[in-house]
């Protein structure tokens, strides 16, 4: 199974750039949809078993992004689509990167 994860990650990257939607291949994905403060972040964190998403009042996670979380015998880490090659082993650093990328793309206005 560990050998399969990098292959699936490369396929997701390729399909993302090609815009082909997977070409008939079902790749593992999770999408959480709901209204503001409906608990979407909590659902993801409970599924993963780690606290890694920004918290606060108002709109906190304001944009979609791709984060691949990896769990193998060699360890745990996250990789963002927008930061190719960077491995985040500290889940607080993952939270900080989400906040920084969100502010970069949407501005710091959270209202």
Key traits:
single chain; 111 residues; two-stranded antiparallel ribbon; globular
Structural description of this entry:
36% of the residues lie in helices and 11% in strands. The protein is built from 3 helices and 2 strands. It has helices spanning 4-18, 40-48, 91-106; strands at 67-72, 75-80. A two-stranded antiparallel ribbon has the order 1-2. It is globular, with a radius of gyration of 15 Å. It starts with a helix and ends in a 5-residue tail after the last helix. The relative contact order is 0.14.
What is the count of β-strands?
2
Low-pLDDT regions: none
Strand content: 5-15%
Helix content: 25-40%
Instruction: Spell out the helices and strands N to C.
Output: HHEEH
Shape: globular
Major sheet: order of its strands? 1-2
| Class of secondary structure makeup | alpha+beta
How are the secondary structure elements laid out?
Elements: H1 4-18, H2 40-48, E1 67-72, E2 75-80, H3 91-106
Antiparallel strand pairs: 1-2
Structure at a glance:
The chain is α+β, with helices and mostly antiparallel strands. It is built from three helices and two strands, in the order ααββα.
């Amino acid at each position: 199974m560990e050998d399969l994860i990098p292959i699936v990650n490369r396929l997701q990257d390729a399909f993302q750039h090609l815009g082909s939607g997977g070409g008939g291949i079902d790749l593992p994905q999770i999408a959480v949809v709901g209204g503001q403060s409906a608990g979407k972040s909590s659902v993801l964190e409970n599924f993963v078993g780690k606290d890694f998403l920004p918290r606060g009042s108002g709109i906190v996670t304001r944009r979609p992004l791709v984060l691949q979380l990896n769990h193998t015998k060699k360890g745990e880490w996250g990789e963002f689509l927008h930061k190719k090659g960077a491995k985040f082993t500290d889940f607080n650093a993952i939270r900080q990167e989400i906040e920084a990328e969100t502010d970069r793309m949407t501005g710091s206005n959270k209202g």
